[in-house]
Amino acid sequence: MLLKSEKQNVVDDFLVPEHIGIIMDGNGRWAKKRLLPRKFGHREGAKTFKKIALAGKSMGVKFMTFYAFSTENWKRPDDEVEAIMRLFEDYLDDVSSFEKENIRLIFIGDRSALSDVLQNKMKHAEEISRNFDSMTVILAVNYGGRSEICMSVRAIAEKVKNNELDINDIDEKLIEENLYTADIIPPVDLIIRPSGEMRLSNFLIWQSAYAEYYFTDILWPDFKEDDLRDAVKDFSIRNRRFGGI
Ligand code: IPE
Ligand code: IPE
Ligand code: MG
What are the chain's domains? Predict the structure, then answer.
């Protein structure tokens, strides 16, 4: 049986995870099924992102991380990457809907590879929403779990080199403290991946060590509030043991 912890809400008799991660996959196939260019799928997927973030808020989820662009997605054709970057910009111009909802916005990933315009908009969105506390939405843009761990290790190595830290001080907590998710974002409780793929694709690999997983064949642009509910309901009956009995 699941016991309600301090940080979890109960909705319709089921426990709501504190932190849900979503791998927004299947945009391309959604467009292909309709004989449309892939970028139309990304546009629909961006609308779904907004709807599902609001649905999560109304269910009482405190943190939602959305995987929008991976460090591996640069392998795609230039025109597709450009279309995705333009969509990010449009969406960041339109964060007012999140403001109204008192939602804090945070970005994780390596921003240095993104355009200055995009970086400035991200910074602005984070600054204006800094004190919003109904929910935190985290967008993973140019994010990769492996590169995040390398970043943490480099920061620690620098301190060891400067004699600010002893090698024996390196522990899980320290590695965690140097990840993008440090301080603010708790470990992910439930990872949802639509589109039928059953893999993490480099998403939150450290933070998901004890996550529950939920896979569905629905393509991301078709994902609805009820699908989120189904995932949360399923999570609610899992027996999380964290290595105990
Ligand atoms: C996810 O949808 C969006 C990104 C990775 C940017 P895809 O574009 O991967 O869609 P499929 O997997 O090709 O259908
Ligand atoms: C994962 O989807 C990345 C995002 C959804 C942003 P991909 O479509 O890139 O993953 P693979 O290539 O199928 O593993
Ligand atoms: Mg994909």
Answer: 16-144+187-236 (3.40.1180.10)
At 11, the amino acid letter reads V
Which atom of ligand 1 approaches the CA of 42 most closely? 3
Rounded (5°) CA angle 241-214-59: 90
Q: Which amino acid is at 109?
A: G
**Residue 220 Cβ < 6 Å to ligand 2:** no
Which residue among the candidates 25, 27, 142, 202 is catalytic per the annotation?
Answer: 25
Q: Is 226 exposed, middle or buried (0-12, 13-18, 19+ CB in 10 A)?
A: exposed
Residue 209 phi, psi dihedral angles, 5° rounding: -50, -35
DSSP state of 73: G
Task: State the pTM of this model.
Answer: 0.95
pLDDT in tens, 13-46: 789 999 999 999 999 999 999 999 999 999 999 9
